[in-house]
Write a structure and sequence with these properties.
Blueprint: E1 3-5, E2 21-23, H1 25-41, E3 44-47, H2 52-65, E4 69-75, H3 81-93, E5 97-102, H4 109-112, H5 118-137, E6 141-143, H6 156-164, H7 169-172, H8 177-186, H9 212-227, E7 234-238, E8 241-245, H10 259-270, E9 274-277, E10 313-315
Parallel strand pairs: 3-4, 3-6, 4-5, 8-9
Antiparallel strand pairs: 1-2, 5-10, 7-8
Length: 316
Amino acid sequence: MTMTAQPSTEPPGDAGPAAPFILAPDVASKYERLKSICRDLGSALVAFSAGVDSTLLLKVCADELADRAVAVTAVSESYPSHELAQAKRLARDVGCRLILVETHELQDEHYASNPTNRCFYCKQELFTTIFPVAQREGLATVVYGANLDDTGDYRPGMQAAKAMGARAPLLEAEMGKPEIRAVSRMLGLETWDKPAFACLSSRIPYGERVTEEKLQQIDAAEVSLVGEGFRQVRVRHHGEVARIEVPPVDLPRFFEGGRNERVVRRLKEIGFRYVTLDLQGYRSGSLNESLPGGASLVTGGTPLRPLGRALPVINA
């Protein structure tokens, strides 16, 4: 996948407006397909996390469906606190109404016990909560931001989404992360180069219980590291040990200007006894490395809850 930019017509020395990006033909074709898929939905509730994928999906749905596209963001202990303000702002910027709902995945023992298919129960809680929102709003379907790259990783949550009837237009358009970033950049979305993020529970090794206290520690630790200038960061929670992952190119920065001492001091204040730096650097889903054979999706014997329960809308 390649991108080219139109040559600037500004005279030398005058930067002028930024030259627009032109999508490569194959990427432009996928973008047109995405627009067609979203347009044919008629109306949609977009599961919106403020990440790269769901922001592009929301933008296209808003462009194609106008006020028949509505965003919904689930707020819980596992959602990074600093993402909520951005979700509100991004929805406003693309001209889409945002509904906030509470989810309570920690109350589900299947989730809290942190099995290898924890994400299944997370997505089950999410879609069980937001499908009634779509019904109440008179919207035809629920869509979310799964993309082609997700099919090559361990994603039990996609099984729950499929079972609940949610659609993934980015996946249907066969768009992977490079294409999504390219189209987002072309559309002027600030998220085009946003680092990937996942729910805070993904920082806790499988089999170790997910608790509100652990999630608060992880959230505070990652906010602290972002404050130190790191964009892509994970703090893996190993009991008393915080294992920090950043891209390898950023590893030397920990030892500049006393940053390592500030990080250690802050993370100990948060509640960790030991603070370590992973020399392999950041990699998505590093805790999956402990799974045998790369793991396969666990689907057998996983019950689905009925949709008819109280609707926990906290902000519309």
